[in-house]
Structure formats: structure tokens, C-alpha cells
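Worked example 3. Consider a protein that binds pyridoxal-5'-phosphate.
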Amino acid sequence: MQIAVRIDHCDERPLQFQLFDQIRSMILRGLLRSGEPLPASRILSQQVGVSRNTVILAYERLLLEGYVESRPSVGTFVSAGVPEASIFALKNPPPQAEIADAHEGREANAVRVPRSQQVVTPVKGLAYDFWVGRPSADSFPVREWRRLVDTKLRYAGARLTEYQDPQGLFELRRAIAEHVGPARGITVSPDEVVIVTGSQDGLNLVSSLLSFHTTAFVHEDPCYQGALYLFDNRAIRMIPVPVDEAGINTNELPSIDRALSYVTPSHQYPLGATLTLERRIRLLNWANETDSYIIEDDYDSDFRYEGAPLTALRGLDTKGRVFYLGTFSKCLGAGLRLGFVIIPPEFVAAARSWKTLMSNGSPWLEQASMAEFMETGAFNRHLRRIRQIYRSRRDALIRELAVHFGDVTILGSGGGMHIAWQLPPGFPPARTIEELGASIGVGAYSINSGGACIRPEHPRSDDTLVLGFANMSEDRIAAAIANLSRALDRARSHPQRNDPGRKVGP
Ligand SMILES: Cc1ncc(COP(=O)(O)O)c(C=O)c1O
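Given these inputs, the predicted complex is written out as C-alpha cells:
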């Protein structure tokens, strides 16, 4: 028999919990009745594409909570006991007035827990972890930073006790305006820069600014979770546009007015494509023609290893359509919580008000230290130093993959802090390799686990792993890939009985 359950790969909860939840709900709604059998764990695991162990764990919890009972050598059946009370409760709901009383004064969506992005590694205690977007902890300029913070504290005066400019410290806005000119081809005045607490805060700022204008959120597929979940949670219409090797496919932009589009043109997150100049221009034209705006998330563009970086969309925009998000989370450290938005001139006053409403500004000490770090040239020296380190780590990762797996297809290796490895035909799905890696202490991530969301119909949905290399030494990269390769070989020579004959390896 089959039951109507499915796995939502954008749902961050463990797979066994998703199964448990759906089967429990079917029992409570009377769709599965007392005494009815559940499918054998092997059958259900094949039906929904998860390991048999996952199904067994879900069944064990249903058993523990009394929703099902197990009859040795026969199977698992919906139990006749406790859940009846719940079924009864659902079939005989209290009158609306009673519900209204119970919720009096409470907004219905106040208790709705929104989905939020995965920014830290989902598996703890791994020996080797290719978690994405994590800068090298050893390369943070601790000594320099301590000296800056010390000096700033000594001369802080009332700056630590009083509110500062909510738009951000002028010295930092000026340093950023001077930096993005040569680095990203953006000519901007410090007045158009708003300092935010990381680019996630910037996304919130833009979302507030454009809330009355936006009819739909047009996003990349796959897409960074932080952007997708934010707008999805706000119940805005979501329109995915597929990404290929040249970035977001601008031929598939929707013909609707007043949309807000989110893109990562320098290094598409997570597939790593660089949006071509032709598509950049088409995207800008589309925004002009449809009275739409664009969020350009330039999260890791400080790292470019091949070819010159293309001018940012914001640098090409002559009509005030682009909100440019920058962050110090990748080039320095996410713990600083510092980022910035370059705002189109007509929105500057509104952005200043929204930033005041949202947070009264960002912390002064970090801003002041960062301003001096940039003004003295130390920031550019730091970037030059870590670019070298990350380039060597990227090379080591690609080399080790080639040593162990032959002719590998790597996406997005021209820049950034992670690569996407498109698995060869015959390999198990990315999700299976992720589980196998975790079981031997190696963190390697399928797209949906790596801080992104991808629709199942996208060609890369389950044949691609994302591997962050910035926080792994070359030796550790070599050891991790060797371990992963050995585990895959073992899986090939001892396929699980319930595994439907998949072959591993080229
Ligand atoms: C695409 C993308 N944008 C932005 C960020 C950074 O967010 P924040 O600046 O809030 O730390 C990340 C972090 O992982 C990211 O992957």
C-alpha cells in the first residue's frame, strides 16, 4: 500500500520528523483509521526517497506516542487507543465563539514560527566540515583589530553612551563609497550608503522600503534561503526564475509590473555562476520597463580568482533601480554583524527613517574600528592576504576531487568561498552523499542543506554538492576528500540491501 506523504526539501526539519508529522496528521484527520496498516518501512523509504532508517525512526516515534502499534512479524497498524480522543476533538471542533475567546487579544500570526535560514553548520562535531560561507577563523586580523578597538575605546567620549547617526557613521560610509568605486565600479556618495547589521538587515530594510510597491518577489532558483524565506514569510507572491551557467535566465523574467527581484550576480548563490554582461543589461531593462527594483547581493565578490570582476549591476544602473547589498561577514567575519546597502538616491530619506525605526542605527564601536581599518589601507592588505589563502584552498579542493573522482565538473570556482560539484552520472543523489559524509564525520552539503533552496524540477536539484573551502587547511581538505572517497567506495562494494542497485563512482 502507499500513503500520501512527501518530503519537502526546503523544510529544515529532520526527515524523520517530517514523516512523523505527516502520518500523525493523517491519523488525526481520520485519513488513516484505527487498525489500518502502514506501509512496510522498506516500501515507504523507496516511495519517498529516504533511507529506511529514517522511516524506522518516524515509526518508532509514532509508536512511542501511541499513534500506531506494532504487531511482531506482521507490521505496523494505526492504534485503536489514544488518538481517538484527538480524532473526536477534530471532528467535533469547539464553536467559533470559544476559539475566539481563547485567542482574544492575540494576533493569529503572532504564534506562527517563520522559516529561517541555516547560517551555521547543521551537523555538530564533524571532524571535517565543508560548511559554506565561513571565513577562515585563523585569518581574522586579531592583533590589528584589538589595537583599533583599544584606541577607539580610549577616545570614545560620549559616542558609546549616546545615539549616533542611524544611517551609520559618516567615516565608514565614506570609506565604503571610496572602496566600491575601484573594487566594484560603483560611483556613489557617502549619503547613499546606509550601514546595517549584516546584509540580512539590509534585506529587511529594502523589504520595508518597498512594501507598498512590491507585487511579487522574483528570485533565483536556486536561491539563498535568507532572502527567499524573508519574503515568503511576508506572504508576498514568489516567482522563481531558473539559474543556469550564465546566472539567472533573463529570458524567463515574468511580465508583471512592480516586482522586486533578488540576484547574486558576482557569484550566484549557491551554483556560483557570474551573471553575463548581456543578462545584466537585460535585467536592468526589465526593471525599467516593469517599474521593478533589483536587490543585488554581492556577498563574496571580494574573492575573484579568475578574470576581472564585472562591474556591479549598481555600477551599470542609470535609473535608480538597484539596491546594492554589501557585507563584511565574508571578507572579515560574520560575528562583526556589519554590512551596508547602497540606496537609489530617491529612497535615501526613507531608508534613513526605516533604519531608525528598525534599530536606531548599528553599533558604534564596530563601525568606528572598521572605518579606520579601511581608511588606513589595512582592509585592502587583509583582502590581498586572504585571497591568496583562499585561492590555494580552492585549488587544493579541486585537485583532491580530481585525484579521487577523475574528471570532475566544478561550478563557480572563479570566485568566492565555496564551489559546487556537479556529481557524475551514476553517483548517488547529493542528499545520500551528504548523509554518508555525515556518518564518517565529513560535512558536504546538498543544495537544500547548504543554505539555499532549489525546486525539485531544477536540473541541479539533487546532483550537486556545495563545498565551502575557506575555513579548511589544504591538509584537512585532502584528508576529508580521501575519507569521503573511501566511504563512497565502501558503499559501492557493499550496497545496502534496500538500496535499489545504485552504482557509485565513475
Ligand atoms: C547569498 C548570501 N548573502 C548574504 C549572506 C550574509 O549575510 P549577513 O551579511 O547577514 O551575514 C550570506 C551568508 O551566508 C549569503 O550566503
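Take a moment to read the result before moving on. The longest helix spans residues 378-405. Residues 85-90, 497-506 have pLDDT under 50 and may be disordered.
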